[in-house]
Each structure stands twice: as structure tokens, then as C-alpha cells.
User: Fold these one by one.
Assistant:
Number 1:
Amino acid sequence: MRMTTAFFLALLVAGTSGHAETSQQRAKRVLDECLAALGGPKFLAMRDRVEEGRAYSFYRDKLTGLSIATISTQYLPPQQGKLAVREREDFGKKKDYGSVLFTESEAYQVTFRGAQPLPQERFDRYRETTLHDIFYILRQRMQESGMYLESRGADVLDNRPVEIVDITDADNRTTTVYIDQTNHVPVRQVFYRRDPVTKERDEEVTLFTKYRDAGGVLWPFTIERDRNGEKILQIFSESVRVNQGLADSLFALPAGVRMLKRN
């Protein structure tokens, strides 16, 4: 009887250990569940997106700007380690307060005076923020070679159970994402970036809340960004629409526009 009991216990332990997830397997499962919750095939088929609402900017947690904003995004064919998206930000109810264009390699501010290239640091920060963005990663980057996933396990964030996953690319760029265990959507992401001027390491945190359906894609209608513990941006979307057939020309400089010098 003792030998039989010991034998079955050994089989049970072996079977349990054989089915235990590795850190990498758990991370992949959590991200697969997240992708499915966001819309699965419809999320991956998202070609463009238009977000309309209010954008608030802050400095040292004090409000410094408020805009009625329309943010248009167009996805391009993915490329290893390269930015494959275009973005246009229009300001004002009638989109008459100027625009900001982000292409794959440059950024411009466009007003009635003309088009002015934005400082390189501004574009570099946009590029790094985008490459670290969990929604961009899931849509554009998961098939890149050298992507490494690692689970940090479970925790509690703001009284909700979450799964924590580190996503590291071939350039050693790491994003830590916190995913709600109940509805499987991202609620927080963290990455670090070296300030080009001070050379100090900045902690960039983004919070995602108020998810709603946007044509089969689940999208956060409230987004907050913090830097080193201070709020720098809040976006409150009133509407989000996907696959609007946005033309390439929307993300290009107007024909004949006057080109201004970079500051």
C-alpha cells in the first residue's frame, strides 16, 4: 500500500509539473487573451482609427492647455524595429486651430503660416512612446524577430487583480503591461527612457480606462500619461471609429504649403 501510494503521488507530481506554465508561456497566454478581448481578428485588421474628444496637457500636475482634438491614425505594413504608423492631430471644433503631423520619420506643425518641422527630440519621444505602446505592439510588433515575453506573475493594482508582463524587443526596449485578470484589457503600462538633455532616466506611465466598443474593437476612451509621477496628458474621447478609409493625403503636407525653418 505504501509503495502504491508513493507511486501515485510521484505520478501526480510529475503530471502537475509537466503541465505547469513557464514564465514565457504564461506571458504569451495572457497577451493572447488580451488580444482576443480587444477584438482579435478585427483588432488586427484595424487599418486606421479616428478619435475625437478633449485633450488636456499638464506641467507639474497643473493644467497648462485644453484642446478639442481629432486624432487620426493610419497603420502601415509592419517593419522590423521601425515605425509603421502615421498620425495626424487636428485642433479645434472645426479643425481650424492647426495640425500636427507625425510621419514615419518626421513631425510637422501645420498652421495658416505654413509647415514647420518639429524639433527632433519631439519626434524621437513620439517614436519611442509609440514603439512602447501596448496597442501598437499587439497590432504591429508581435511577429518581430527577437521579441521576448516574460510574466511577472499576478498582483493587485487599484483593488483589481492584474497579470504583469514584460515585453522586450530586439533592441532591448522593454514595456511592462498590467492586464486586468477579469476582462483581460490593459490598464497600465510602464517604460523608461533616457532624457536627451539631463541624461536622467524618465519613467513613462500610461493608464487606460473606460473601454468601449468601437466597431468591433474594444478601445480605452480615457487615457492618462504620467512622467516621473507627474501627470502630463489626459485624453477623453467622445467617439472612436475604426476603418474609416482614411486617405494617404490626410497624413501628408498640403500641396504647395510654405515650409518654415525648424526652431
Number 2:
Amino acid sequence: MIRCLIEEYLKLDNKVGVVAVDPSSLSGGAFLGDRTRMQVHGVDPFDKKLYIRSMASRGNFGGLSKSTKNVVKVLDAAGYDKVFVETVGAGQNDIDVRNLAHTLLVVVNPGMGDVQTLKGGIMEIAHLYVINKADYPETAKTEGEIKSFIGMLPKQGWEPNVYKTEAYQNRGVKELISGIEEHLEYIKEKK
């Protein structure tokens, strides 16, 4: 999914930075699994419009490494228009990103199981919910569960929405970007 967002924002002439926090390997470094999936087609690796940095969580709880915030600050100071932070984000307590990012996306796959049981903490902080692999049969059920979950959240101004994407086919990505930009406008208006 992140690859599609990168490609679309680059097409819109944005300078894009990505900080991918991966689980630590036995050596203490990052597994780099996410970075290998982020190979962006048609982008010159020496182009200064895209920077991807993998970081190990180093066992840090909360889904981020301790230095993630500093890397984001450097990318912002370097003039990157969009900075994505991809967290380990596997459990209910991996929510430190809420103190760092302006817009929070939670990406799930159809048939992920009971929303409240599996990802309660993460699900509660999202501004946008993304069901990737939306061509799978369980999509409608997962969408219904997420919308039901949203209905139980306390109303706080912004109404989260659910987006269905198929990263492999690049479907639904432009709609998701519209949702991201809409949320950013909402934030600007609230300041």
C-alpha cells in the first residue's frame, strides 16, 4: 500500500520521505521487509524526491524506534512535502505514532478477525481506515465491522472513513489520497 501512496504523491510532484520502522532482527538491525516491498517503479534511485529509511524498533514498545521522531524532523527540515512513518503496528499498544503524525491510517486486510479484540488500541487512534486487498470476498464483512467500530467511538469532530484499495492493481489509491488531503485541511482549519 505504501508503495502506491509514494508513487501517487511523486506523480503530484511532491518530495516524499518514508521512515519504515521494522521489527528488530537477531543482530539488532531492521528486517527491511517493508523496504523491499517499497520498490517504486520509474523512480531514479538517485532522484532527490524520494528518501526511504528503514529503522529497527530495537525492541522499543509503542511501534517506533527511539530516534524516529528525529528522523522525521530532519526530513521535514530538508523540505520533504510528505513524510510517511510506517510503524511495526502489530498490537494494541503500538500507538506512539499518534504523538508524531498528523494523519493516522490503519491498514487492514479483509477477514482480519474481530476488530476490537485484535487491534483495539491502534483502531482507536486512526483518522482513516484502509482495507487493502479489497478484491477478497471478506471485504464487505470487514468494512461492516470497522464502520460498527467507528460508530462506537466518541465523536470528536473528525469523522473517520473507510477506504477500500487494491495495491497490486493501484485501485482506490487516488480516493485514499483525497481522504488524506481532506484530513490535512481539517487540521489546518482547526488551528
Number 3:
Amino acid sequence: MASSAKVDRAELETKVQDMYRAVALHPEGEFHFEMGRALAERLGYSPEDLDRIPPEAIESFAGVANPWEHGRLSPGECVLDLGCGAGTDSLVAAVMVGPEGRVTGIDMTPEMLAKARAAAEEMGARNVEFVEGEAERLPFADESFDVVVSNGVIDLIPDKDAVFSEVFRVLAPGGRLQIADVTIQNPVSEEGRRNIDLWTG
């Protein structure tokens, strides 16, 4: 994509990681976006689903919409949560797919993954795992997942072609995407494409 050559990728990744490290470690801090359970409920998350998740995972929830509006998961499905953060969507998914299903959350921020793993342990969720990695280079075999969910992550990645190529590679035939994200309706200027703060804000 043209935009991926215009932004300093390493600088962007560092800035995004720094921001979400702070979200994981200091969810009570001041951020330029809303977070937590109140946000999740405003976005339409079921209070019953949220009640099953440890509050420590939900306090760092920073989604932009509700991927479950596209439909609930079925028992036994294998699910990938792309950019899982502190694990809210992964843990909701783990409850939906039940013990016969499997959920894998992937994120590039170790502090978020630590929070997600602690929440899964607290829940006793044995059907979910959390992996450190990047959406553009997924460390999974072809056709591994029935469903890929993502919430407010793909907009932060410059090379969206690589992300979707990887997503389609790991989806099983007949699999589906349930994505909640930010889009823009007008072209972005060359200067805007190089502005790291616009990518992260």
C-alpha cells in the first residue's frame, strides 16, 4: 500500500506499544480514548458476558465497536482474536465456544498479554491461549481458524494488505471475519500519512 511507505513503521510500532503498555499498566490514567466496562456496555456488549470476565481485563478494554454484533460464536469453533489486548474479546469468545472450542489471542504488547493470561487463569479458562506476535506475520498454520475477530486494531497497522492476506491464509474454508474498526471516508494527505500521531490517535 502507498501509505505503508510513508510512515516510519518502527516508530509507529514503538509509539503504539508504548501507548498500550500504559493502558495495561495504568488503566486509570488519562488517555485520548475511552476505556473500560462503561465503554464496552455503551458499545453493546452484553452485561452477562462482561460479568463472566475478570474486571482487570475489562478495565483495559479500549475497543471501538462490538464485533459480536456480527453474530455470536458457536460451541466448538476455533477463534483468533487479532490484537487481543488485555483479553476481553478473547475471554468472551472462550465462554461462547465452550470447552470443546479454542480461542487464541495475539498481540504485540507483552504487558497486555500478561494481563490477558492472568485473567484467563482467574477464570479457569483452559480453552484460550495468548501469543506474542504481529498481525502482518501470523505464527499459525494455514486454515487454522473458523473465525477471526478484531476490535480497533487494523486501523493502527500501515500494511493492511499484509494483515488481510494473513487473515485469509489462516481462515478455514467457509470461515468468517468479525471486525470492529475505524474507517475514514476521505483521502488522507501525504503529510497526514506521515504523521505518527494521526495513526495512533
Number 4:
Amino acid sequence: MLGPRGVAAIAAAALSIVALRSAIGQGTPEEQIAAGLYETGLSPQMPADAHCPEMSLGFGTQLNRSGNKRTEAHGIVHAGVDWTLPEGSPVLAIADGRVIERGQDLEGARGNYVAIEHHGLGARIYSNYVHLSGFSVDQGQNVRRGQAIGYVGKTGRSATYVHLHLNVYGDRSLQVGGRKWRYRYDYLQLLSGDMTPIDPVKKRHQKVPVSYIDQHGQIHPSGAKVIWPFACTKTGP
């Protein structure tokens, strides 16, 4: 039987967890789904004629890159996709657009980051490239898909290893965990070209062919509007 002190300690711990979730901004499972924070069932189909850096952590997962449960400190749901590459590797714009923000959040979660607004993708879409070691574009600059916008790094307090974290989001904002949260999309959904809503229960369970730019600056396939955020080495004809 718990005494008053025990009950008070449990209540304080519960309040601390609620406060931490609010600070992280990922809220309840219902709020997460409303904000697009769930696994989509999509997975990449890597090209047979090229070598592309593979993702190290997918969208909406509750696991970290080691396969363990994510901690509250890093967000219980992964709100973007990650690639682990050497520090300084060039990061490429995934689609044509305009740099709307080039920022330094070194004491916060993002570190150095670049945000790009995209048009012509069926909806107004934004991409945010996080934890960069440096920049190669300026705010207000127009960029083309495949153009280097920065470099892989480990900046920001939630960057525990050298990697790119890429967020894709829309215009709509919701209250999640006590703060405003932009609706998130799985980058692979944008890459697929099909932005219709994905059922969080049934999911889509689809392999998405990877469009990319090669070491010679050629886009494959040539008409692709969205590509991989790193150059691929073409090996086939």
C-alpha cells in the first residue's frame, strides 16, 4: 500500500513525462496520427544500375538505428528519415524550390538546417535538412533538384551521430503535445509521386523506385521531379 509520499512521487513522475512529451511536441497516439506521424508501409526500391546511399532510419518508426525503442529525449516517433554518411558529404535538394530558411539552432534539436519550399508537386511541400555541418546556399536562393545545399554533420543537441535528418511537411499546422506541429509526410511518399492520404492502419505497403542524380549530373529517370538527397554512382549503361 503506497503512502502519501509514494502517491505524490508517482504523480510527479507522471507529470514529468507529460511535460517532456509536450516539450518534444509529439503528444498522444491520436495526435500523432492526425499530424501524419505514423509508419506508412512504404520502402525504397534501390536502382539496379546505380549505387545510392541507403537510409539508416525510416519514417514513423518507434525504434532507433540500433533497433531499440526510441527514448522520450529524441521523440518517441521518428518524424523524418535519416542517412548515415561521412561528415562533409554533400546534401542535395530533393526537388526544385526556394530556400526559405537557413538557420543555426545549435542549442536546439536541429543544429544547422536548410528549409526549402517546393512547388509543382501536387501540394505546397517543404523539405528541411537538419544537423548540417555547413551550408552551400543562401536564404532566398532558388535551387534545382540535385543542387548541393549543405553538408552532412552532427550539429544540434539531438544529433547523437553524424547523419542527415530530412523532414518533409505541408502547410497545415496542428496542436500536438501542446504546441503547433506542421503535418509531416514520409519522404518516400513524396518520392512516389502519390500524395493521396495513407491509411495508418492498412498502410500502403509499396516499394518506391528511387529516382536519383548520378556522378555526371544526370537525373534518372530524366523527368523525375523528386530525387534522392545524395548523388548516386551509376554502374550500368
